[in-house]
Design a protein that fits this description.
- The structure holds two protein chains of two kinds.
- Chain A has helices spanning 2-8, 11-53, 55-89, 108-137, 142-158, and strands at residues 171-179, 185-189, 194-201, 211-221, 236-254, 260-261, 266-267, 272-273, 289-290, 297-300, 305-308, 314-327.
- Chain A is an alpha+beta fold.
- Chain A has one domain (19-338).
- In chain A, helix 3 packs antiparallel against helix 4 (108-137).
- Chain B is an alpha+beta fold.
- In chain B, a hairpin with a 3-residue loop joins strand 3 and strand 4 (133-134).
- In chain B, the strands form three sheets. A four-stranded antiparallel sheet of chain B has the order 1-2-5-6. In chain B, strands 7-8-9 form a three-stranded antiparallel sheet, with no helix packed on it.
- Chain B has helices at 2-51, 56-63, 65-68, 95-99, 154-157, 166-170, 237-262, 275-281; strands spanning 72-79, 106-122, 128-129, 133-134, 140-152, 172-174, 187-199, 203-212, 284-286.
- Chain B is built from eight helices and nine strands.
- The chains are: A alpha+beta, B alpha+beta.
Chain lengths: 343, 311
């Protein structure tokens, strides 16, 4: 009977112990989840910042390469028109029987020359504008890229919480911006061959070297569990590290005289005839038509190469588009003093 | 009183049983929850590590040692990237020009995110009192996907794959081991029949197959120029030079038009006498129809004689 009397009194401590233990475990689980959630959030914030930081360098290069392509098309046109004018200005047999050209009162080679020279001047005006734009878009230095990347990260902080900003919970620190020069391949071109990676290292100056950047995001996060019975759960630090580099993410080889522009259903650069009725060569060459042509290339997968037999006019462009891709953080162990941490 | 005393034992037994069940259940749920959280974080870490070629197992066990003590399986699989809609390279009208290995007129290689999928499964994380009470076989699992930037259709699609074909999506290499890991470049490759000499009232007197040294290039030959832009010693100085030569030729055209209306009594645009045409011709490189792969054999000369008196 003594035992039974004492047993009745043990339910309260048992409940208390059980509830206390359950609460401790529940709080631990919630706190652990909180830590993990913040670490993942910090990493995602760092990933996003790193991906965006070098966007100005990549966009500047994209603009520059697009303008170089436009100028290249126009110079090819000037080159072809010039040759037609050489023939017409010297009364070549290929233009002597040409009819009167539209907009001209002359026929024969004189009419052809007038038509071609008009087109030449128009092409020159476009080429001049393209050259000026190439000049403007090719002044971007590595120092500019550094400044822009730092400014973008600062904007991430300033405009945090908006569509153009980062995660307000974190401090963003650029721990490094540097040229990614290791492993770059050389690109060369001659009259008969172009090579992307000729076995030599690419040796650009700094302004044409892809940048790499490393970002740290950091926040000191208060515990989600409140203080109780004199016990205060510690603040923890959520840190994210991410790096990115500029990369040519799409590389294109284009015969614009052959490849079809889906917007028009025609080749990107279809033949343009500036004087009609001329005598055409046996191989189809018309000296008064600008033909971007394109000789068929043969692919040799085993040799990692293409070959072309040069038989007709050809304009080939090979270039690409830049963006950023993530890379492994490369700065090694960082000390706390190398990055800011939001309290 | 007597009845009350007599009920204490069964009451205690019932209460104790319920209490212990709740306690163990709570503990068990907590442990499973902790493992699930660890597993979720581990999958994130594993996928992130795998993207950069790291050891996913080591990364997970280093950061989540509580997983290492259980029966944990960590697997990482690289799955095909999403397909790339491309109105040009995926256009049926261009299919033959891009995929016929004997009649190629272009190609594209694209960096696309291969799906690095990390999966963690854990089959033993609960309390275990052997035969008395065991929750040791509860299952948790987590998965995460990160994009690994890989090059598909490498070497400008030298394999002549169709864009988005399984072959192209399966055959990927790292951007950093690809040929195209290069500084920004532009290749403007131009060749064709060219008139190189003229005579009055006879027209063109010599025609040959030539490559044209376009001013628009960006590669190993001008990457290291000291200045940016088109100015002297600039990366694109050749463009300024070519523009000057073309503009000076344009200045001749009205006079030529006037003269040839009177008759073709003298030569015009003659590379042998006209400084601007000489400058232009100096950019032309004679090439045979078949030339081999030596890129040093026919070096281009976009600066020519720097324009001579025409610049």
């Amino acid at each position: 009977m003594q035992l039974t009397r004492h047993s009745r009194g043990q339910t309260l401590p048992l409940w208390s112990l059980g509830i206390g233990l359950a609460l401790v475990i529940a709080f631990a689980a919630v706190q652990y989840g909180q830590v993990l959630r913040w670490q993942i959030r910090a990493q995602n914030a760092a990933d996003a910042a790193a991906a965006g930081a070098l966007s100005v360098q990549t966009q500047q290069w994209n603009e520059q390469l697009a303008m170089v392509y436009a100028a290249s098309v126009e110079e090819y046109r000037l080159e072809e028109l010039l040759q037609g004018m050489m023939l017409a200005a010297n009364n070549d047999t290929r233009c002597q029987a040409m009819p009167q050209q539209p907009g001209s009162q002359y026929s024969g080679c004189v009419g052809a020359f007038v038509a071609l020279s008009t087109a030449y001047k128009a092409a020159l005006a476009r080429y001049t504008a393209d050259v000026q734009l190439v000049s403007r878009t090719s002044q971007y230095t590595f120092a500019n890229a550094e400044n822009d990347a730092n400014a973008i990260i600062a904007d991430f902080q300033t405009h945090c919480g908006s569509s153009s900003g980062g995660d307000c919970a974190f401090s963003y620190t650029v721990t490094n911006i540097s040229p990614r020069s290791n492993g770059l391949n050389d690109v060369e071109m001659s009259g008969n061959v172009w090579a992307i990676n000729d076995g030599l290292p690419g040796t650009p100056k700094l302004d044409y070297t892809p940048a790499q950047i490393e970002i740290v995001t950091c926040a000191k996060v208060p515990p989600i569990v409140p203080s109780f019975l004199g016990f205060t759960p510690p603040t923890f630090t959520a840190v994210g590290r991410a790096a990115a580099t500029s990369a040519m993410v799409e590389q294109e080889w284009l015969d614009p005289g052959v490849i079809v522009n889906p917007a028009t259903g025609l080749a990107f650069q279809p033949p343009a005839t500036y004087a009609t009725g001329g005598q055409v060569e046996s191989d189809g060459k018309d000296w008064f038509t600008v033909n971007y042509g394109g000789n068929p290339a043969k692919a040799y997968a085993s040799a990692d190469a293409f070959t072309v037999a040069f038989q007709a006019d050809e304009f080939t462009a090979v270039t690409g588009w830049w963006s950023t891709i993530p890379i492994k953080p490369y700065m090694g162990t960082l000390s706390d003093s190398q990055y800011a941490c939001k309290s | 009183m007597t009845r009350s005393r007599g009920a204490a034992l069964p009451e205690t037994a019932v209460i104790l049983g319920v209490t212990l069940t709740l306690i163990f259940g709570t503990v068990e749920l907590g442990l499973i929850g902790l493992t699930q959280l660890s597993s979720d974080g581990g999958a994130f870490i594993a996928a992130h590590t795998a993207v950069f070629g790291g050891d996913a197992d080591a990364a997970v066990t280093q950061r989540f040692p509580n997983l290492a003590g259980h029966t944990t399986a960590i697997s990482v699989a690289a799955n095909q990237p999403d397909v790339t809609d491309d109105p040009v390279w995926g256009n049926a009208a261009n299919a033959s020009s891009l995929t016929n290995p004997n009649d190629r007129h272009g190609g594209v290689q694209i960096v696309r995110p291969t799906h690095q999928q990390a999966t963690i499964s854990n089959s033993s994380q609960g309390l275990d009192f052997n035969s008395f009470l065991s929750f040791a076989n509860a299952q948790v699992g987590s998965s995460a996907i990160e994009g690994s930037m890989m090059v598909s259709n490498k070497s400008l699609d030298v394999y002549s794959y169709t864009l988005n074909s399984s072959a192209s999506l399966n055959d990927q290499i790292s951007y950093f081991s690809d040929d195209g890991n290069a500084p920004p470049y532009f290749i403007g490759f131009k060749e064709g029949l060219t008139c190189t000499s003229v005579a009055a009232d006879q027209g063109c007197t010599n025609i040959g197959m030539r490559a044209f040294s376009s001013a628009e290039y960006l590669d190993g030959q001008n990457w290291a120029q000291p200045n940016d832009g088109i100015g002297s010693n600039g990366v694109y100085y050749a463009m300024l030079l070519h523009q000057h030569v073309y503009a000076n030729i344009a200045n001749e055209l009205d006079g030529i038009a006037t003269q040839i209306q009177q008759g073709f009594t003298s030569t015009h645009l003659d590379p042998s006498t006209d400084a601007c045409m000489q400058a232009w011709l100096s950019w032309e490189i004679a090439i045979p129809n078949s030339t081999g792969w030596d890129w040093t054999a026919y070096p281009l000369n976009p600066l020519g004689g720097a324009g001579g008196s025409c610049s």
